[in-house]
């Protein structure tokens, strides 16, 4: 490898925002996500990769926000699978990453397991959860709804954080590949190296 290329690659690893000029215009306009790092907790492995929180990815009053999320997520390799709220119990998926586009209402959710991090979300926000990330709804408005999507080729399971299954789910999580793009079109390598 020539010295200039090696220097450029080292700079890109040290400062992932150098990748911004290569982003599609729509993704760059939305800004960067807030990375939320969650440590393992009991039977909830969480991930070495952070949750990506896009606050106000779209204006809350966007007409037919659910369909907009579905179209954009699918265009970036995350086909939508459902419209629903979030379960009120801690759970995670060991066989798929998950995108959650909030299109209606607001909620206080918890990320990381029973003693995890509370987070307020509302219409217009997007969460990208790496496989293994615990999540649940603590409270929500009556109209709280999300679009759920998973990378093409990944099928989700339901895990409840049983410590006896931790080794098995860690093995499953290690097999889940990182997609090239997040559901809003950002290169995931910049956030999930």
Give the arrangement of secondary structure elements.
Elements: H1 3-14, H2 25-30, E1 34-36, E2 51-54, H3 65-75, E3 80-84, E4 98-104, E5 106-111, E6 117-122, E7 126-129, E8 135-140, E9 145-149, H4 166-174
Antiparallel strand pairs: 1-2, 2-7, 3-9, 4-7, 4-9, 5-6, 5-8
Characterization of the model:
The strands form 2 sheets. Strands 1-2-7-4-9-3 form a 6-stranded antiparallel beta sheet, covered by helices on one side. It has one domain: Jelly Rolls (Sandwich). By secondary structure, it is of the alpha+beta class. The protein has 4 helices and 9 strands, in the order ααββαβββββββα. It is 20% helix and 24% strand. The chain has helices at residues 3-14, 25-30, 65-75, 166-174, and strands at 34-36, 51-54, 80-84, 98-104, 106-111, 117-122, 126-129, 135-140, 145-149. InterPro entries: RmlC-like_jellyroll (IPR014710), RmlC_Cupin_sf (IPR011051), UCP019307_cupin (IPR014500), YjiB-like (IPR047121). Keywords: Signal. Residues 1-27 form the signal peptide.
What Rg do the Cα atoms give? 17 Å
Characterize the main sheet.
6 strands, antiparallel
Number of domains: 1
Uncertain residue ranges: 1-28
β-strand amount: 15-25%
What strand line-up does the widest sheet have?
1-2-7-4-9-3
CATH topology: Jelly Rolls
Determine the N-to-C terminus distance: 20 Å
CATH class: Mainly Beta
Percent of residues in helical segments? 10-25%
Mean pLDDT: 89
Order of helices and strands: HHEEHEEEEEEEH
